[in-house]
Structures are given as C-alpha cells and as structure tokens.
Amino acid sequence: MTPEDRIHALGIWRGSIEISPIAGGITNRNYLVSDAVARCVVRLGTDIPIHHISRQNELAASRAAHAAGLSPAVIHHSAGVLVLEYVEARALVPEDIRAPDMLARVVPLVRACHHDIARHFRGPAMIFWVFHVIRDYAASLKAAGSAYLPLLATLLARAETLEEAAGPFDIAFGHNDLLAANFLDDGKRLWLIDWDYAGFNTPLFDLGGLASNNELPESAERLMLEIYFERPPTDDLIRRYAAMKCASLLRETLWSMISEIHSTIDFDYAAYTAENLARFERAYQAFARDQ
C-alpha cells in the first residue's frame, strides 16, 4: 500500500482529499492533507528501536505538548500514523535562531517544554539519556561492522569524559531534537513540533542541541543561557553546558553513522556524518582547552 493509499484509508476525512508531501522528515514521511473542512499534517512512521524512537511515546508527548500550549492538537492516531492539526506558519531556519530577537522568543518556549510538559504527560515515559544512546549506537555500529569502527574507541572515551564533566544533572522533560525546522512562527507566536525523541533528560542537552544544531556564536550561547536561567551563567554552568553541547554533537554524529546503515530514506547521510564529526571535533577541542 502506498503512503497515499494509507492516508485515504484512514476513514477520518470529510469529502475528497488532496495530499501533498512535506519535505524534510528523515525519520518519518510527512504529508499535508486537505479535506472539505480542514487541513491536517499526517506523519507516517513506525517504531525505530535502533534510534530509540517509540511512536507511542511520540503520541503521548504530542498530546502533553498540546495540553501545555506548545504544540498543535492530535486529531487521530493509529499504528504508524499520527494526524495533527495544521498550523499556518513558517518553519524557522538556523539564521532565524541566531538572531537575538528570535532567540529571546525561542528560549522561553524551550524552558516551558522543560517545566510544563511533564505535568500533562500520561503513561510510561522515555528517558533519553544521551550517554546511553551514544554507547548503544557504538555497540550497534560494532555489530554491523561499520566502516567507522576505528573511531569508536576514541569517541567512547571522550563520551565518558563529557559525562563526568557535565554533572551534576538536573532532570526535565526534553524535546531532544531542537532543529530550527521544529520551531514554527505563525506571526503571533511560536510552536514546537516533532516529538520523536522526547523524554526525560537534562535541560543542558536541549540547550546544547539548540546551539549546535543552529551554530550559535559564543555571544548567542551566553545570551541563551542567561535567558534560560534568568541570570548570567557561572563558569561552572558554562563548563557543564559545553560538555553537553559536545555530547549533542557526538550523538548526532553517531545517529548519522547508524542511519548510513539502516535508513531507507533518501538522504546523504555520509555527508551529514562528515559534517557533524568535524563540528564535534572542533567543539571537543575547544572544551578540552578550557578544562
């Protein structure tokens, strides 16, 4: 059955429908669907254990995020299908996030995610502990005989250094995938979408991911921390944050290495691996110099 056939067969539509692919998904396939009454976003994707993605967890997080006022409503779900309210909005790009005025809007939304979603989440919840994910990815790469095997011992040793440096840890409910495209601006407010990797984590992981995914300059990183914590960052906080930023880049690198082997989505994962490995190396060297 084609994706279009699956969407037609959902039985929730009023009248005939129009289906248009939405570009950008690399763990699922997304479609804009219009019927006689409304427009919806349909996300097609099954569990991906190798990436710690549970669609039941994504559903629960999506519902909780909507209840917290951060994300569009869930309209329908079934096995491998999530249908969401469509929001007429523009997806941000990294250049947007780097602008101080936009950063001042984005960071409170991230803080609201950390503070509010857990109050609304129901049922079993995932823990997205980045250092466990890194170790699990490394084990999967070894089992698959990855071409990156010669790098793994060094990368795992660095992960241990980062885990030790990043503590002590606060725990909050994190988004854990703060790409610019997961923020939508409807002209009045921002929305946060795509809860594939959501789960309890330390807030510094999301902040590190926000900075690394959007290549924030150092001045913007300090502004981000000051907005989030509502005070100038201490040297200790900056050290812990720098470690989690490195961990975010390392996880993204290993995610891409794994995806080179397992993903069926048309995407240049090898180039993405090389880009993120280079960025991790730069960030880790800067972190090591400051210790």
UniProtKB/TrEMBL annotation:
<dbReference type="GO" id="GO:0006646">
    <property type="term" value="P:phosphatidylethanolamine biosynthetic process"/>
</dbReference>
<keyword id="KW-0808">Transferase</keyword>
<keyword id="KW-0418">Kinase</keyword>
<protein>
    <submittedName>
        <fullName>Thiamine kinase-like enzyme</fullName>
    </submittedName>
</protein>
<dbReference type="GO" id="GO:0005737">
    <property type="term" value="C:cytoplasm"/>
</dbReference>
<dbReference type="Pfam" id="PF01633">
    <property type="entry name" value="Choline_kinase"/>
</dbReference>
<dbReference type="GO" id="GO:0004305">
    <property type="term" value="F:ethanolamine kinase activity"/>
</dbReference>
<dbReference type="InterPro" id="IPR011009">
    <property type="entry name" value="Kinase-like_dom_sf"/>
</dbReference>
